Amino acid sequence: MKKLNSIFGNTLLTLVMVVSFMITNSSAQSNSINEITKNKYALDNLIAGIKSENCGIKRSAIYLAGKYRIKEVKDVLLEELNSGNEACTRILIALVLYELGEPKGLLSVKNQIEADEDQKSRRMATQIYYNFLKHDN
Prior knowledge:
Layout: H1 2-23, H2 33-36, H3 42-50, H4 55-67, H5 74-81, H6 87-100, H7 103-115, H8 119-136
């Protein structure tokens, strides 16, 4: 029963994150981290968070990169997308790449759809990719 509650909680959290990303204005511009903060270590710290082994830190850093649309982390996100993280982390990365409007990143999301064994991750990545195609035209 606890495992079922945990799965339901993770699914609900992912759904809330997807809805919040989709509701935001997808046509907003990506930002440079220098436009947001003057801290010279901010980008290094954000990248370290994205590469962290701690799932909570990793997801928080990925979420912040998407929320503030930090364009400098797109290559790090692509590395993480292809590194075999948990399904919910891959979904979050796909959402952030969508928010950044990164065509190369969305191509990686398309490749993830074809290769991912996790049904939930494939379904979410499919929706993100098709939403990008729909709004790109």
